[in-house]
Specification:
The complex is a heterodimer of chains A (1036) and B (319). Chain A is 50% helix and 15% strand. In chain A, helix 21 links the parallel strand 19 and strand 20. In chain A, helix 7 crosses helix 13 and helix 28 crosses helix 29. Chain B has 319 residues and is of the alpha/beta class. Chain B contains 14 helices and 11 strands. Chain B has a 5-stranded parallel β-sheet with strand order 2-5-8-1-9. In chain B, helix 1 runs antiparallel to helix 3, helix 2 crosses helix 11 and helix 9 crosses helix 11. The radius of gyration of chain B is 21 Å and the shape is globular. The two termini of chain B are 28 Å apart. The chains are: A alpha+beta (1036), B alpha/beta (319). At the A-B interface, helix 4, helix 26 and helix 28 of A face strand 4, strand 7, helix 9, helix 10 and helix 11 of B. Chain B: One of its GO terms (molecular function) is ATP hydrolysis activity.
Chain lengths: 1036, 319
């Protein structure tokens, strides 16, 4: 039971880790656990067939106060070890019904025989029925138990009454009493009891008070066999010594409780049976292989240590040098070897002391690099936390692999010693689990999951050592240390441990492949759970963000920089970040309600390096800007250019305050056409770095207004700004038209060039080119919020040429690339898009919008001469924000497409309703199938696990149901004559004896004292099926 | 067991030779004897109560005494008395009528309450105490008491507490026409009894009683008995429900019934067969029920009908 609870708990922990982290390894782990549990259930069911249990009692009756031995003979017929065999021996007093249960434990090596010898002593004359109540085997991990076949019949042992003259101490008194009574004229031979003086330990119930009063000495009745009945007080409850009978009149709960209390687990003189001794005697010696055993120990400890090291190294990217592995492997081999060196006790302690001192001295000598290594390891862990949860932990030192290696190796010394001690002695699985499980869960949650090899090593080692440690230690049954029995038992125990450990590790390794196959099936429910786990994660993080600074007084400032719905700046793959739904990122306040979507620019990517977008080259921009002869900072002048030009027309700018709540503080989130004062520093050509000097309050022109203003400006005015603009335009053309190399990109480039040619777009037809890009994306790609990109592929190319499904990051990146291919300078922007509807009017006439993490967005911007950078929205679902002109161009393009092909707008429609995901199709049939299979397996398992009694009941119930359908009245019970008559009349050619035999067998199975045998169950099943068939025929 | 069981059945067969047409009554009384209980026969005179007792005594080779209870019967007539003997100068105990294996107490309701209680005490303790000396009664010991339900002039009905001590109450009733014709054909009357041959002795009976005690009763059956008792206690039509002693009586009778059926365990049909006989005399109707026309018998039928019986085709879960 405990094993099953533990197993369920472990599975739950693993599943929770898998659900939260969704790293493929966690899913793999859960698959493996599921397979392993199934395997163990099967294993233990087959294991029980190998074990036979027989009971042997003394052949002759025994005398009271004479020791006698009850032998439970155990035999393992199979090649597998039986790590734990639990036998419950039951003795029932035939007279009083008192039941005594003696639990004994044993273990059996392959092909081994052993005897459990229970020595008992009877205190008084009676008839005892002995039987093996149950014999249970357990699997190596102790999760499942199965009952072995035990002899159903009980064996009887007669304890003779005490011989004449033996009772010398009190021999005279009974005669006296008898004399007194017989003298009074009553024949005692007809009485139901004998009389004798009171002895210490006699029950007060037995005292004959009337006689005691007459004789003047305590006199008790000695029952003569089973005829003993009631005491003179006439109390009903004292009738008989059978406790359950007394309890007839109490409530059910009280009956249960009292029965539990009265059922004796052990023996004592009051019950008449005294327990003397128990011992496990191996009859055949288990075969020992010392070399193989040492190899088993070594294998498990190496697996554990190297697995853990590899897992940590991979998960936290520690980059440990190779000599650390070699060192740990050597340490693992050294500890057991040291353990086997024959040394005296004093010598052992001396060596241990010397080693400890040496270790401390070494630690002291290298303390500087050791501490540095520790700090670097901590940094590595923090870095992983940063990337995983977008946290802002401060990193200190740059890693030096040698220092980290030193730290790892020196830490490994005590740890490997601990592992080696655990595996060599195989003592405590709980301790091992307590140490390893937190490490595993933490690594799974915090690490990057790139540690598959480590996990593959660690898991067999862990399970193997758990299995070895589970091997039962019941030294109470082994006799004293130094005896031959003890040595033989110890040897069996060691062999069992090693075999179980190595066997478990091997099984685990074998199960890897099917577990890999099972992974996609498990992935489906995890995917379904994803929104829930996301919410839980986000809520947890939000709470941490809110409460950590309060609790720690500002020392722990767990700050989340959320951008683009959990996607890191410039990154195109999901999964490295966490979408924090419900977390408030930014509050925007404007002086009037905006007429269009407000785009707040954060990160700006210029160069695509094959995996992510990178910010522009700041140094190149600085040197370029130096030549543009601006007053003050050239970079700011460029950033302010659209605002300044629009402001020259005399229009009144709008005002906007951006308050950063939990948004990434590396950037200033600013609208288009805003004015930046001197406190802002543009980071090269792109993002404005975040600042804390002042509030982010901007004067800006809405995009539509700016476009009109800029278009209407006087072309003849060739001022400073014009010169600056043309210089910047040249710079942009030089920088923002790069397309990455590669065959995939070339193909798209050619396709687009063909399209441009086909549509006869002129060089200055910017609207046409923009519409071309948009229509190309709409035709080829569709939207999916949780599209995944496989590792080690170019996410952009994968999106463009293979998956064609993606979110705003993919769409924006693709748009940037396509624009560059058709000759429009473009950049990639990550920030926030605040739709018009989000703004609500505040009391003072201003409007306010709180942007949450799901308002994070990525889009493309193109450079238009005279207009500056303008956003280009391509993400489906955001097209509502397009301007009328863009929509008209799109419509024209779409019309052209419709004329070209017979399939009008299929992709577009799909893109507008991104509901159907490809994963939901297999989900539809895989889940029901799996459920069906599970139910089927459970039903089969239950059927196979039926006891003979349950079989009889089930078969008879089925027969009864059938009879009910054939017209038997519901209230007719099977013990009534009408039942048998019905069967006889409705089943042709059925004689009375058969029916009566069946009914007797069924009744006996349920009500008789002897447990139902398998043969009876078979017979009843056959009879019931025959009768049911006959009933069927009749009804047909 | 089979062997002894056959002996018990042989006894009933022998008794049935003398008591014609009443096999169920004979069987029930046999069960009560096997369960060490005492029998109350409620019936009018002349239906063969004495013959029944004598037939049992003969068939089982038991000593039998009979006392016709009248208002002037004294306790000492039952339990015996000590008489001073001049020759020896000692008091000598003269055993009463109860010193036998099978005691027939005829019309027990006609005697004084004192005598009734003396007998009931003997029944309960299986021992008599005269002048401070306790004497154990011979074993086995069974009392057959008869009660005349009509003609209640000058009778002292046994109170409920005393009725409770009888294990079973049977009603003999008139024999049917054929049986009565058969009885008439036997002249003299003793000839009927002469046909009864002893088929066992009291040691066999003692052994059988032990066997009956060893009959196994499963938890379900015990629960069933308890539920039946509780149902009578909760029935609003009854003033008094079944006592725990009654439950014990039901259990004992059921064991004996199972024994007679040749089983070593109690099955539900054993309970249903004997429940009414073991319970009838212990129940007391309320005034409303009495005036409403309810009888104890139909209440018992209701109880047997409503309490779910353990049935193999509807197994109890959690056994």
């Amino acid at each position: 039971m405990a094993g099953k609870v533990g197993c369920a708990l472990l599975l739950a922990v693993l599943f929770a880790a898998a659900a939260v982290s969704r790293t493929s390894f966690a899913v793999f782990l859960v698959s493996l656990a599921v397979l392993l549990v199934g395997f163990l259930a099967w294993y233990v069911r087959t294991l029980r067939r190998d074990v036979t249990v027989t009971l042997q009692l003394p052949a002759r009756p025994v005398h009271p106060d004479e020791d006698f031995a009850v032998l439970v003979k155990l035999h393992n017929n199979g090649r597998r070890p039986v790590p734990e065999l639990r036998v419950v021996l039951q003795a029932v007093d035939a007279e009083s019904g008192t039941a005594i249960e003696l639990p004994c434990g044993a273990m059996l090596a392959p092909h081994q025989c052993a005897d459990l010898r229970v020595t008992l002593r009877a205190a008084k004359s009676s008839l005892w029925r002995f039987r093996v109540r149950e014999a249970t085997v357990r699997d190596p991990l102790g999760l499942f138990a199965a009952h072995c076949a035990v002899p159903p019949q009980s064996r009887e042992l007669c304890v003779l009454p005490p011989a004449e003259g033996e009772d010398d101490g009190a021999g005279t008194k009974p005669q006296n009493c008898a004399e007194k009574v017989t003298a009074a004229g009553c024949d005692l031979t007809d009485g139901v009891y004998d009389l004798r003086p009171y002895r210490a330990g006699d029950s007060p119930k037995l005292i004959h008070w009337k006689l005691t009063a007459r004789v003047g000495e305590l006199t008790v009745r000695e029952p003569l066999g089973a005829t003993y009945r009631a005491d003179p007080a006439g109390s009903v409850l004292a009738e008989g010594a059978d406790a359950p009978q007394q309890l007839l009149h109490f409530g059910q709960a009280a009956v249960k409780r009292l029965r539990r209390l009265t059922r004796r687990k052990d023996t004592d003189p009051a019950t008449g049976l005294v327990f003397v001794d128990r011992v496990l005697l191996p009859r055949t010696k288990a075969a020992a292989h010392p070399m193989a055993e040492t190899a088993a120990d070594l294998l498990i400890s190496e697996l554990l240590a190297l697995g853990l090291l590899t897992a940590l190294n991979g998960a936290f990217a520690l980059a440990l040098p190779i000599w650390v592995w070699l060192g740990v492997a050597a340490l693992c081999a050294a500890w057991p070897a040291l353990h086997r060196v024959p040394l005296s006790k004093a010598g052992r302690y001396g060596v241990a002391l010397a080693l400890a001192v040496g270790y401390l001295v070494l630690l002291f000598a290298v303390q500087q690099p050791f501490l540095a290594g520790a700090a670097q390891c901590a940094d590595a862990v923090r870095l992983c936390l940063d990337t995983r949860f977008n946290a802002n932990f401060v990193l200190s030192a740059s890693p030096v692999s040698a220092q980290m290696g030193l730290f790892a190796l020196l830490t490994a010394v005590p740890f490997t010693m601990f592992l080696a001690a655990l595996t060599a002695r195989h003592t405590d699985a709980l301790l091992l689990g307590a140490v390893l499980l937190p490490i595993v869960v933490f690594t799974l949650l915090a690490g990057t999951g790139r540690a598959v090899l480590g996990w593959l090593l660690l898991l067999p080692g862990w399970l193997g050592s758990c299995a070895a440690a589970r091997s039962l230690v019941r030294k109470r049954l082994w006799r004293g240390k130094g005896s031959a029995v003890y040595a033989a038992n110890l040897q069996t125990h060691r062999i069992n441990q090693r075999l179980a450990g190595v066997g478990m590790a091997a099984i685990c390794a074998v199960l890897f492949l099917p577990a890999l196959a099972l992974r996609p099936v498990l992935m489906l429910p995890l995917n379904a759970l994803q929104p829930v786990t996301d919410k839980i994660c986000a809520a947890g993080l939000s709470a941490a963000i809110e409460w950590l600074p309060k609790i720690s007084g500002g020392a722990l400032n767990f700050h989340v920089s959320a951008a683009a719905g959990g996607v890191e700046d410039g990154s195109l793959t999901r999964g490295d970040g966490l979408a924090l739904t419900g977390l408030e990122d930014i509050m925007v306040t404007t002086d009037a309600k905006p007429e269009e979507t407000v785009y707040l620019r954060g990160f700006i990517g210029v160069d695509y390096d094959g995996t992510s977008w990178q910010a522009g080259n700041a140094a190149a921009f600085d040197s370029a800007a130096a030549n543009w002869k601006t007053d003050g900072d050239g970079r700011l002048a460029i950033a302010n250019l659209p605002f300044l030009r629009a402001a020259y027309s005399g229009a009144q700018p709008r005002q906007m305050t951006v308050q950063r709540l939990h948004a990434n503080d590396a950037y200033t989130f600013a609208p288009y056409n805003a004015y930046f004062n001197d406190y802002y520093t543009p980071d090269g050509d792109g993002a404005i770095a975040g600042q804390t000097v002042q509030d982010d309050m901007f004067y800006y022109f809405p995009r539509k207004q700016a476009k009109e203003l800029l278009a209407a400006r006087d072309d003849d005015d060739a001022g400073v700004l014009d010169r600056l603009e043309s210089a910047y335009a040249a710079y942009v053309r030089a920088r923002c038209l790069d397309v990455p190399d590669g065959a995939g990109y070339d193909a798209i480039d050619k396709e687009l060039a063909a399209l441009v040619k086909e549509r006869k777009l002129r060089d200055d037809d910017i609207d046409g080119r923009r519409a071309l890009v948009r229509s190309w994306l709409n035709e080829h790609c569709r939207y999916s919020a949780d599209a995944e990109t496989p590792d080690d592929t170019d996410p952009l190319l994968y999106f463009l040429s293979e998956s064609h499904t993606g979110s705003s990051t993919q769409f924006a990146s693709a748009a940037v690339l396509l624009c560059r291919m058709v000759g429009l300078p473009a950049r990639y922007v990550v920030g926030y898009a605040a739709p018009q509807s989000l703004f609500t009017a505040a009391g003072d006439g201003s409007c306010r919008a709180v942007l949450q993490d799901d308002n994070a967005h990525a889009w493309a911007e193109i450079y238009l001469s005279g207009q500056g950078w303008t956003p280009l929205e391509v993400t489906p679902g955001m097209t509502a924000e397009l301007t009328e002109g863009e929509l008209a161009a799109d419509a024209a393009q779409a019309g052209q497409n419709a004329a070209d092909s017979d399939t009008p707008l299929p992709a577009r429609q799909e893109a507008d309703s991104p509901t159907e995901t490809p994963q939901s199709v297999p989900l539809l049939w895989v889940l029901p199938t799996v459920l069906l299979l599970l139910v089927l397996a459970l039903a089969l398992l239950r059927r196979a696990r039926r006891t003979p009694l349950q079989t009889v009941q089930a078969e008879f119930c089925a027969l009864h149901r059938k009879m009910r359908r054939c017209g038997l009245a519901a209230e007719v019970s099977s013990d009534e004559a009408a039942f048998a008559e019905f069967l006889q009349t409705h089943c042709p050619q059925t004689d009375r004896e058969t029916v009566q035999h069946l009914l007797d067998a069924v009744q006996a199975a349920q009500f008789a004292p002897d447990p139902c045998t398998a043969e009876t169950a078979q017979e009843v099943r056959a009879l019931c099926r025959k009768l049911r068939k006959k009933l069927c025929r009749r009804t047909v | 067991m089979q062997n002894i069981n056959e002996k018990a059945l042989a006894v009933t067969a022998e008794v049935s030779k003398a008591v014609l047409g009443k096999p169920e009554v004979v069987l029930k009384i046999m069960m009560a004897i096997l369960a060490r209980g005492h029998v109350l026969i409620e019936d009018i005179p002349g239906v063969g109560k004495t013959t029944l007792a004598q037939a049992f005594a003969r068939a089982m080779d038991l000593t039998q005494n009979r006392v016709q209870f009248t208002p002037d019967v004294l306790p000492s007539d039952i339990v015996g008395f000590s008489l001073y003997q001049k020759e020896t100068g000692k008091f000598v105990y003269h055993p009463g009528a109860v010193m036998c294996n099978l005691f027939l107490a005829d019309e027990i309701n006609r005697t004084s309450a004192r005598t009734q209680s003396a007998l009931l005490e003997v029944m309960e303790e299986s021992a008599v105490t005269v002048d401070g000396v306790t004497r154990v009664l011979p074993q086995p010991f069974t009392v057959f008491a008869t009660e005349n339900p009509v003609g209640s002039v000058g009778t002292q009905m046994l109170p409920e507490s005393q009725l409770d001590r009888f294990m079973v109450c049977v009603v003999m009733g008139y024999p049917d026409a054929e049986a009565e014709m058969e009885i008439l054909s036997r002249q003299p009357r003793r000839a009927l009894l002469d046909r009864v041959q002893p088929v066992m002795d009291k040691n066999d009976l003692l052994a059988m009683q032990q066997q009956v005690d060893a009959v196994y009763m499963s938890d379900e059956i015990r629960r069933y008995i308890v539920e039946l008792s509780r149902a009578t206690r909760q029935d609003s039509r009854l003033m008094l429900g079944l006592s725990p002693r009654a439950s014990l009586a039901v259990a004992g009778m059921a064991r004996a019934a199972a024994f007679l059926s040749g089983r070593n365990y109690v099955a539900p049909q054993d309970i249903t067969a004997i429940f009414a006989d073991a319970a009838r005399h212990r129940l007391c109707l309320t005034e409303q029920a009495r005036t409403g026309g309810d009888t104890v018998q139909n209440i018992l039928d209701d109880v047997l009908h409503t309490v779910p019986r353990p049935r193999p085709e509807k197994p109890f879960h959690g056994r």
